[in-house]
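chain below, 225 aa
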Amino acid sequence: MQFNPASYAPQALAADRNKVLRNTYAMLALTMIPTAIGAVLGINLEFRMSGWVGMLVFFGVAFGSFYAIEKTKNSPLGVFLLLAFTGFMGFWLSQILQVALSFSNGAQLIGTAAVGTAAIFFTLAAIATVTKKDFSFLGKFLFIGLVMVILAAIANVFFAIPALSLAISAACVLIFSLYILYDVSNIVNGGETNYVSATLGLYLNIYNLFTSLLHLLMAFTGERD
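prediction:
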């Protein structure tokens, strides 16, 4: 039988994309470990850092980490930096978890937010994977929405308007849900070929989706003693 490179190429391409997707999901699951460790550590230390100082520290560490991970994404160092960053994110997450745990139904609120986040992620990831539809057209609109949300969040650090805070959380739920669809579609269709970068994107989507859902749940169903 004569080997036909033309017929083999699409199969090899599909196999490569599936490998990236599998590696991304495996690494995404692994990132939950340092996240959980960081969160528990932050809760035990009763870590607090808010206001503009907290904002500057967070954005400084976050964007510094993004740059370093992107530069080293093709090496084991990139994996280490990614895991270290998720540990930091877990530590930072402890602040909202402490607020949630101050409610009498705090554990239930956290569990509901986690289940809701998982349900949204698996549903949208399945849609992108099964349909293989290209959702890249969402990129421009999502980026504009993300910039607007960031600017509103920065403004609300100084104005502290509860209604605006809830509106930002609601917008984040929509934006980061659609980002899951966009990012998984990007992997499935070959737009993203590095699993470290892909994991970072999906991790941030899940993280922000969870915190936004938790914020909304605390506002509407939180019970004080």
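The helical segments are 5-45, 51-71, 76-101, 106-131, 139-159, 162-188, 195-221. The chain has a mean pLDDT of 91.
thats it, cya
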